[in-house]
Amino acid sequence: MKSTSLKAYTIAYLIFLYAPIALLPLFAFNDSRVIAFPLSGFTTAWFGEMWADEQLFKALKNSLIIALCTAVLATTLGVFAARASTRYRFPGKAGILGLIMLPLVLPEMIVSMSILVILLAIGIPLSLFTIILGHVLLCTPFAVAILTSAFQSLDRSLEEAACDLGETPLSTFRLIILPLVMPGIISSLLISFTISIDEFIVAYFLGGNQTVLSVYIFGQFRFPTRVPAIMSLGTVLVGLSIVLLTIAEYFRRRGIARAGGKDTGGFL
């Protein structure tokens, strides 16, 4: 009885979670500007309208710049934090790691307002740079979680053997450790990139007059005639997100297998 109830709950939860996403392609290919059932017919006109929007591509360019910078910075910080947490012991280690992971549980609204107050207080103008700062803060915990798993699966005897053969700690890290955790690094880059592209609240608070993709999409919903084109854009973004997450998961599993570890589940 419990098993049946649990399965029913799981199915209902998944339907509730993914049904809105499944509706995106339905209305993106629907030959009507009204988002409602019954469907009118099949068309690809909304994708052409989306492609012709210059403001969309300007917002997309800004988002790509932000996402690329965020992915690199968050992953770099994640490498340092994951390496320190798995290799060394130091005072306050648990507390420091807890503070690093804190943005995972804090409401993004609170984080965004706090960063905004600090930036205004010290006189830093809102720009793409301030959005990058906020996104790095949000993405670093995900990078740390992924890379900690990668570093924990390493066999420390490989590092000790390299040192015994005359390698310095720096060259050992560069020639032995980094190649072994590279799948985890790639996975972290892809996850951070995807989170940054999709993030709205921080971009809305910290963007100033710079428009990014998520804020642009939010603004377009004020105009009913633009909704079908936004549905088309949403369909494309969902497809790209699925591809990126699949690639990231592939590299995560490959890294664990390469290091001889045991896979215990998904990213977190």
What name does the CATH topology carry? Answer: MetI-like fold
**Helical proportion, percent range:** over 70%
pLDDT average, as an integer?
Answer: 81
Specify the number of helices. 11
- What's the total count of β strands? 0
Order of helices and strands: HHHHHHHHHHH
- How would the global form be characterised? globular
Named at the architecture level, the CATH assignment is Orthogonal Bundle
Q: Nearest-angstrom radius of gyration?
A: 22 Å
Low-pLDDT runs of 5+ residues are none
Alpha-carbon distance between the two ends: 30 Å
Q: What order do the helices and strands come in, and which of them pair?
A:
Layout: H1 2-28, H2 45-51, H3 54-87, H4 93-101, H5 108-122, H6 128-152, H7 156-164, H8 169-198, H9 201-206, H10 213-220, H11 227-258
Helix pairs in contact: 1-11, 2-11, 3-6, 3-8, 3-10, 6-8, 7-8, 8-11
What are the salient characteristics of this protein?
268 residues, mainly alpha, MetI-like fold, 75% helix, 0% strand, globular
Could you characterize the architecture of this molecule?
With 268 residues, the chain is mainly alpha-helical. The protein is built from eleven helices and no strands. It has helices spanning 2-28, 45-51, 54-87, 93-101, 108-122, 128-152, 156-164, 169-198, 201-206, 213-220, 227-258. α1 (2-28) crosses α11. The protein is globular and about 70 Å long. The protein starts with a helix and ends in a 10-residue tail after the last helix.
